What we know:
Layout (H helix, E strand, L loop, with lengths): L4 E6 L5 H10 L12 E3 L5 E6 L4 H6 L5 E5 H7 L4 E5 L5 E8 L14 E4 L2 H10 L5 E4 L15 E6 L3 H5 L2 E10 L1 E5 L5 H21 L1 E9 L3 H7 L7 E4 L5 E9 L3 H10 L3 E7 L6
Parallel strand pairs: 1-3, 1-4, 7-8, 7-9
Antiparallel strand pairs: 2-3, 4-11, 5-11, 6-9, 6-10, 12-14, 12-15, 13-14
This protein binds adenosine-5'-triphosphate and zinc ion.
Amino acid sequence: MSENLKIAIQKSGRLYEGSMKLLKECGIEVSNGNNQLRVQAANFPVEVFFLRDDDIPEYVQDAVADIGFVGENVVTEKNKSVEPIEKLGFGKCRLSIAVPKNGNFRSIADLNEKKIATSYPYILGEFLKEKNINASIHEISGSVEIAPRIGLADAICDLVSSGSTLFTNELKEIETILSSEAVLICNKTLSAEKRVILESLLFRIRSVKKAKNNKYVLLNAPNNKLSTICKLLPGMKSPTILPLAEPGWSSVHSVISESDFWNVIENLKANGAQGILIIPIEKMIV
Ligand code: ATP
Ligand code: ZN
């Protein structure tokens, strides 16, 4: 019987939705209706294991799972022997040091001989060592943000995304230690057969990511501006140009990257483009 690639994802929490959505966008159908621990995909040789995120690096290291989707923060903290393969574009956050908003601490140097509460003792310990700061680390597993208020610690080191949790707890960030997003990690001794399945999955993941970073653009342009407009829109190979029914005008179709999107749109308008339509792309194979 041929093998399945075993994928570990978070059972519930902030990475669950993003992980399931990515599998779906890759055309992999997984139903987790009955809250099961493992589910075989209907139409792709993978089996999905639903686990606590903290356990994923170890399970991938020990080949209980072949690959996992997990935050870079957890991968770094657990320090297991796994291979990070691909950033997945969701679960973005940062690990930061924060202090009471109205207190006396201004920078990390003020934290010498102080106490910092965190769920990330390894990353924080390495960071303090590197910066020569002699603070004590108080490890707690949840609700780190309340530690200063209840007198458990002087500062915290915790994950931040919007900053609203810090704001409601009257804390301010003074240092970012690590930027993180979900990544695909892989066992270091995958069989050749499983590597083939992984390559096929990676091809799909990269196509989905590329599509998200690009938009399809359609616009009308006066023919005398076409060469300038085409230079602004190189597209995948070159833009498509079709004549409009109205003489002297053409319709231009191309692909535009999300990163310089607004700049390009402004330039297109300045060069006479009209009726600009921007359409999301579902998959992009180059
Ligand atoms: P589990 O029960 O699986 O152990 P958890 O409570 O440890 O779950 P979540 O809060 O669901 O974990 O966070 C999972 C991951 O989501 C984090 O490790 C991090 O990579 C990412 N993440 C993104 N934004 C945030 C945020 N604002 N706070 C916490 N985690 C975030
Ligand atoms: Zn966790």
